[in-house]
Amino acid sequence: MRKTQFFTPVVTCFDKNGQLDQQANEAVYEHVVAGGIEELVVLGSTGEFFAMTMDQKKQLIDIVTKYVRHRAKIYIGTGGMSASDTIELSNYAHQAGAAGVMIISPYYFRLPPASIEAFYDAVLPYVRADVFLYNFPDCTGYDLTPDIVLRLLRRHKNIVGLKDTVSMLAHTRDLITKVLPDFPDFSIYSGYDDNLAYVMSSGGAGCIGGLSNLVPEKFAAWAKAIDEKDFKAIEQYQQFANNLMNFYSIGQPFIAMMKAALKLRGIPLQEHCTIPLLQADARQVEKITALMKELHIN
Question: Is the terminal CB of the chain with fewer CB neighbours within 10 Å at N or C?
């Protein structure tokens, strides 16, 4: 079994004017890296990439690569609605020192397989970085099936992994069982935090889960327990993750809830999000506080 990886798709911090808050973003990176996480994803869904300008994205890439340096691997979400923007941002991230990029395909129309492949075929030959595909059917309206992934892998050697943000374990399992026989070095990650142990035992590479923003130390320790085959600890962390999954039901999207929770943990950030995302209200903060107290998150 390969080494367990847990990536944190970090939140992006803004000030009241909608500009990037450099100190707050650095505080989040410090919190996550100090918690033992060795891979960060910047400008993922949790990072509100969908509402940021190209200039803001480049600015954030510069902030994270200069601040984190070699203390953790940095991956940048670079997918967009156009092939040209995706190529431009991907190569900017690569030049800045990112370990790779994560590319979600256009997320407005429900695209047929031929269109999905046409997008990646138009992008990947011009991207100099290692590439993770990003499958998120609830947001794109369509699925990167094993057949699509296999066809893309046969044409593009810079695809190295895939994030599968699908709640059904059978979906990720099918990707693992159908893709890895032909591409054994390909890395498949769950997009849901509580699926880590299952994905690893099935032959996957780990998880890219947003709850690790809050308690990176727990998820880093869980990954270590899996590698050390500490079954008692694995069970304890699984139960913790199962209970923490209740966080996702407090408010949608959960990004604003996570910022409120991070502030409760003492991370010096403002809770502003990009419109139309709203800050957590008093009732939601009460629920967040209660869940953190129940799980002994200080």
Answer: C
**284 domain-assigned:** no
In a domain, 50, yes or no: yes
Which has the closest alpha carbon to 126: 99, 92, 160, 96?
92
In one letter, which amino acid is 134?
A: Y
Domain total in the chain: 1
User: 6 - beta bridge partners?
Assistant: 207
Tell me what pLDDT residue 1 has.
73
Within a domain: residue 17? yes
Please state, in angstroms and rounded to a whole number, the distance separating the CA atoms of residues 210 and 7.
9
For 5-62, write each residue's pLDDT tens digit: 999 999 999 999 999 999 999 999 999 999 999 999 999 999 999 999 999 999 999 9
Q: Find the domain containing 126 and state its range.
A: 5-233
User: What is the distance of C-alpha 159 from the center of its chain?
Assistant: 17
Q: Which two tokens stand for residue 104?
A: 């979600």
Structure-token match 């431009």, residue found: 88
Distances (CA, A) of 223 to 53, 65, 114, 218: 35, 24, 37, 9
User: Can you give the CATH number for the domain in which 177 is found?
Assistant: 3.20.20.70
Number of helical H runs and strand E runs in the chain: 12, 8
Phi, psi of 25 (to 5 degrees): -60, -40
Q: Dihedral of CA 257/64/78/177: which sign?
A: negative
Cβ 140 vs Cβ 105: under 8 Å: yes
**Mean predicted confidence (pLDDT) in 270-283:** 96
254 domain residue, yes or no: no
Question: What are the Cα distances from residue 239, in Å, to 72, 119, 164, 168, 243?
Answer: 27, 40, 22, 18, 6
